[in-house]
Records
---
Amino acid sequence: MSEIGFYHLTRTPLAAALPKLLGRVLAQNGRAVVRVGDAERLESLDAALWLSADPDWLPHGSPRSGHAAMQPIWLTTEDEAPNDARFLFLVDGAESARLGSYDRVFDLFDGQDEAAVAAARQRWSAAKAAGHSLTYWQQGPRGWERKA
């Protein structure tokens, strides 16, 4: 089973929080897939990752740029890992039928959106019932804080 971390965004938007988490994956020579809800979000995150200042280099690709197998970070709307990623980032309520294929899953959700919080609770319940190891993280004044 996979380790799934639920990341409750309360202080910064996704475009600011995601680069730092992806940077940690790359620092470990890891590969990641970022599954988004729609093509518009994919395009906005693509731009945000290229413009990121912290970290300042997040090499990535998407179906538009191609060469999936060469990309350390792959942005997609599909439930796929064409870059052999061991880390999965789910945003916009995106889900995966392949959670067990990853070492670690990051489920990021907007704490200012009641519907997103309710949907995250449902994903938590389903993941727990499936036997995955779960953690809950919330943004605090000094960064991510693990909650009980």
---
Amino acid sequence: MTPVTREGYKFCQELCIPCYQTDAHLRLKPAAFMDIAQEIAYWAAQELGFGYDTLHIHHTAWVLSRMHIRFHDIPQWRNNVKLFTWHKGSAGLYYMRDFLLLDGAGNRRVSATSSWVVIDEQTRRLVRPEELGHLLNIDYQVDDAIEEPCPKVVLPKDAQPQLAGEHVAAYSDIDLIGHTNNARYMVWAMDCLPQDYVQAHSVRDAYITFNKETTAGSRVQLFTLQTQEDIWYVEGRVDDKPHFVVRLEF
């Protein structure tokens, strides 16, 4: 992995897309983009003084709440790309961070915007900005990879999704703060869709909203809904309560 460097208010990293992050058509998977995005986000936050190590001292942690990813031209295996991220300030309980993936010619390949919250590692409750004191009092730049914050994703009213299967959160799903890593939910969502469909179509926009965390042993029922030819929803429920919802536009 190449080091994360700083260019003005943005942090960046040069990457070469590896085979294990791509699908049968050599395209970067949506979950793989979420993986590399969260890694550079951790590094950038650490450099600005509010990363994992700093928050962990105070028994708090970053948790992704919402994310919108737009694939302009999906990178492929062996493509050399450059990933940028920057902090965009806060809005209520949410802390905003954008991402931009460019190819060697400077063309926009992927844009993303994300909303994060801070939780107490012990109680798992949300921590309000005023409780964090000086930790997050930093300068930020108003610059948009995607102008609008990711909206809350919900199933359409009166929708009747179909049960697609069940997943039990296990070792490979759990991350460094003891719950299912955000990118794993996108893996579950993509695996729910008909494989002939996802192989024949490319994701254009992916939206994800997290309502409640899942931990090892959680039994997540997965429901799918196709509202138009190119729009799918996947909702994960535990004990009949929605824990996450994904909207995929192909």
---
Amino acid sequence: MKFLRSLSDRWPFIALSLATTAIVLWAGLIVRSVFEPQTAIQTNVSSSAGPSSTPLPSWIKTAPPLVAPLPQQSVPTLAPTATPTAPAAKSPPPKVQPSAISRNSLPQARYGHLPYAEHLPENLVSIGTYGQGSNQRTESLDKEAAAAFEQMVADAKASGVRIIPISGFRTITDQEKLFERQIKRQGSPEAASRLSAPAGYSEHHTGYALDVGDGNHPEKDLKFEFEETAAYKWMVDRAQTYGFELSFPNNNVQGVSFEPWHWRYVKSGRAAAIFSVAHALQGGSASGNAAMDDLQ
């Protein structure tokens, strides 16, 4: 009886709770009936394609998408990994004669010949004549080189050897004419330069260089056969004592043909300075590199 009396006292609250629950359930059913068809339609759209798809209600067609579609991205194709290979062995560089290396690489040189200034005429002295009749000419050198040459000639004569001067000092104008004649004979400046220097690049301009011959064998003047004469062999053995050296030996770095008749004086301070680069080139690769640096 006590329980019934308590229940009768709370009945208004119980009735209110039941009514509230019924309203919530009813509202839930309404909400479900509204949103559940939209989900089904959206599912059909995503799973079907083409004109046979189920038509959508107008309110769905005009509704903006909830999530923007992601852009399609292409998957990069990976190139197959190359199998590492050992580097190819380097072949040794071909052996080249010194003349072939330097002929076109000497700084400020022309066809392998170094530049030289023309000697002052007042410092030249005669060292003798060459030729006969109308072809006879007087040859000269700088007074320092001339004194050394005359002493060498006298000492050689005492040994039965006749050293004669063929060509000493030469002007740039004379050298230009000589080189032009050589071009006509050889066919090109490159070929001519192996036997003669272009104007402005001859050691003869300095007054410290000369061509010599053997007085007993004039037929070998300015020919490679001069190497066979007693005069050449005597100079090879003794010319250095008098301050002379062969300008263009075999396989010289400048690439000029072997000239057994062409010698230069290098003993005095002035002469040594004039031929410092050429002398260094002839002396070896290490000093030759330093000499080429001096020209730059």
---
Amino acid sequence: MERFAVYAEAAEEVKKKLDRLAKKAAGYEIPFSYTVSEEHPEVVRVMDAGPDGTVHEVNRYTVAAVDFVVECDGLIKANGWTVCAKIEHGEKGNIVTGFGGHPVLPEWYSVDAGCDHCHVKRPRSVTFMCENEQGEYRQVGRTCLKDYTGISPATTAMWAEVRDLMAGGMDCMIGEWESRNPAQMYDVRVVLAHAYDVVKEFGYRKSDELNSTREMATDRVLDGKEPSAEGLSVAQEIVDWLITMDVEGIIGPERDCVPLVQSGYAKRRHFGRLAYMPVALKRHKERAAREAKREADRQMAATNSKYVGAVGERLSIKVAAAQLLTSWDGYYGTTWLYKFTDESGNEFVWYASRPCDAIGGEVLKATVKDHKERDGVKQTIITRCSVAA
């Protein structure tokens, strides 16, 4: 099994090459498969050469990458043998390429081009170093490799192609970096913190407005500016809120940002959604406060409110608070739904056939129609209401 990372933009091209190798492997009846991970952040070092030729690091970037895991041991393993290395022989010395992560031994760089299978002495440009299950090494020529180990030279060449795909990693020279222009990824907390700082200074501006919150936050991120300590604190609060959010049935920017905060990184195209999150958190807190107040009011009403009077009894109610809850049109016209609270905290509900002027501190004459309980609160249903003279 071999694992390697590539730039996300190069993933499709690598897939095509691996698919081609998989077809070749199928022709040799050798197992060959691969899997591809989801995109993830990977740190890339960008290098440059100084006047003296010394290579040094000039910057680091976080980019979108994918991991390939290739199952292809069958290319170099069979019948208890493993091909450890390919040796290219030359007058100036040997070039040794290790296979499967096997360490290259120093003596292989000077070994003659012999073959332990046929023992025929003749010039060979390539031999292979093989190891059996007992840890013994044998040097075998290209034409003898399959007879001796059951491993085809063609499959070892395929292994070399896989190794070529993995070679070099993702670090690159500055010229390659500038020409590649990969999709960079940015720390979600930094983006959120800058968005908060911008909103605090200018208020929230939509993405289609001039100098939008997204644009200003993006400029600060790309310029490498440091967000405020307050912004970083709020950013962490946003991350904690979104990670623990129950996303079932939620549609909108908050839902889209959940996977971003879970991964910790985002691409520039996601900045617009993240830029709205300081506003979303503020509104979430306001809703939570309203809900908490409603619940506290309900609890108080459930404690204080009692049924008043008997059905059919005419009451005089000293109104402490009045509220129009809603209205609707029906077959017999419009109905207005009012809720009154008296000085003792008792609740009264009136389904009125006419609008009622603001009532507060007035004495209301009404007839008890029914007693009902709603959300744990005892309510007296009244009818035939009028303000006492």
